[in-house]
C-alpha cells in the first residue's frame, strides 16, 4: 500500500513539475489551437465550435486577441461574427455582425486568450493549495502504512 501511494505521489509530483516548466509552451499551444478553432469554426459543426462559443459566452470575450480576429475566417465572410460574441442576443442582427465597425458596439471586444490565461493564473493558487493538501495526506498515508508494516513484522503474529 505504501508503494502504491508513493507511486501516485511521484506521478502527481512529476505532472506538477512538468506543468510548471512547460507553462509557456502550454500557453503557446493553447493560442495556436484557439486560432485553429476560429479558422475551422462551424465548418464541420464539431465540439471545437461549441467550445469556442462556450468560452466566448462565459468569459464575455470574442476572438483570440480581439473581435477583429473573426475577419480572417471563412465564417465571417458568410455570416459575420458569431452570435456568441454578442453583448445582448436580442440586439445583434446579421447585418451588424457582418460589419466590423457596427459590430464593435454590439459584441465583446476583448480577446479570449488573455482572459483564459489570466483566469487560469488567478486560479493556480487554489489548485496549488488543494494539490499540496492532497500530497500531505498521501505522505501521511505512506508513513502510517510503513509504520503498520513495521509493527506487523516486529510482533510476529502466529498463524491460527
TrEMBL record:
Keywords: Glycoprotein, Membrane, Signal, Transmembrane, Transmembrane helix. It is a multi-pass membrane protein. It holds the Pfam family Tetraspanin. The chain crosses the membrane at residues 126-152. InterPro entries: Tetraspanin/Peripherin, Tetraspanin_EC2_sf, TSN6/7_LEL. It is found in: Membrane. Residues 1-19 form the signal peptide. It comes from the Eukaryota. One of its GO terms (cellular component) is plasma membrane. May be involved in cell proliferation and cell motility. This is Tetraspanin-7.
